[in-house]
Amino acid sequence: MTLSAGGRIGLAGAAVVGVAFGMARYAYGLTLPGIRADLGLSESVLGLIAGATFAGYLAGLLLAGRLAARHGPRAPTTAGGVCGAAGAVIVTLARSPEPLAVGVVLAGSAGGWVWAPYSDIVTRSVPSRQRPRALAVITTGTSGGLVLLGGLAVLAAVGSWRQAWAGIAIAAVAAALVNVRLVPRTGAAPHRKGRSGTASLLAALRVPAAYSVVYFAAVVVYFTYAADVLDRGGLPAAAVPALYAAIGLTGMVAVATGALARRAGSLRVAALCLATVGAALALLALGGDSVVATAASACVFGAGYMTGSAVLAVWTAGLVPEHAGAAFTACLVVGALSSVGAPALAGAVLPGLGLGPLLVATAAVSLLGAAALLLYGAARGAGGGTGR
């Protein structure tokens, strides 16, 4: 069976994004207990390394555009694969905090390198009707990565945390080879000159950027405190990798994001995702001691999280198809800054507020964001179409 251009690029992109986002980005938190016990690092050092992963991701986002401008959009996806593989190998072999930090930051940067360039690759190599589906498939690769990460977490629990990182290194190499084989090399994108071009780009992205602030803040709060909620609720240790696997499995529904956006409009899909993530946060806050409630929360969150990522790619590509990568990168940078600020704010109010109320408050913000998007769409008549 011969795959179409959209199918080949979607498959390669899903593999690369799945390893970079679904595995390398979240592996540090899952393997943290083993790293702490093996290397004997303090909480402050471990926290600094965790924060540095966001710096690596942001650096990858900002550098990917420059590399793509010189060598075409496939170049940063290759660079991201190399960073993911090299970082995972360094972490696997680390015996002290310095190489551990270098490896974790390199692995964390992979997501920044690889995700946005696929918007340019798809808009330049895939027929317009196939683009929303290809972008959704690429983003949904994160779900497969999370499922594999859940399996590696079990391996780490019965063996060593180093085995999990070795598995990520192997997966990163395999994904990079698939990417080079299936994704065509294209030239550098034409440069948009002048302030008017930048101003029009920013004007087009006001609503997706506002969505990114709320969406990424809610998502990072969920991922930051989910394991803590399960631990406080007295659930077994296996509940954490099961939670990640459930998020990955239910997130597979995001492959339909392109078709859903065509029918309902990207803005309405984005609002639905914010409402879904808010509901998942509320379930986690109110039922953290219940296996049924946490399982339901993970399933609801998986669908909202993955569809929320996919619709952002579809949305920005529809709004600015001639500069899809730059548009997506701009929203991801906004989201990265929100991802840094949200945990800091949550950590500041947590002692006085408590974990449950903090999650409920975040859920309320997410639900209010959904309502605001729907009101804006109703006022502007933004119904159908992926780009409106």
From TrEMBL:
One Pfam family this sequence matches: MFS_1
The UniProt record lists the keyword Acetylation: no
Keywords assigned: Cell membrane, Membrane, Transmembrane, Transmembrane helix
Xref: PROSITE patterns: MFS
Transmembrane residue ranges: 45-64, 76-94, 100-122, 134-158, 164-182, 203-225, 237-260, 267-286, 292-315, 327-346, 358-379
GO molecular function terms noted in the UniProt entry: transmembrane transporter activity
Membrane topology, as annotated: Multi-pass membrane protein
InterPro entries: MFS, MFS_dom, MFS_Efflux_Transporters, MFS_trans_sf
Major localization listed first in the record, in broad terms: membrane
A single GO cellular-component term on record: plasma membrane
PANTHER family in alphabetical order: CHLORAMPHENICOL EFFLUX PUMP RV0191, PURINE EFFLUX PUMP PBUE
Protein name in UniProt: Purine ribonucleoside efflux pump NepI
Provenance organism: Streptomyces rubrolavendulae
Gene that specifies this protein: nepI
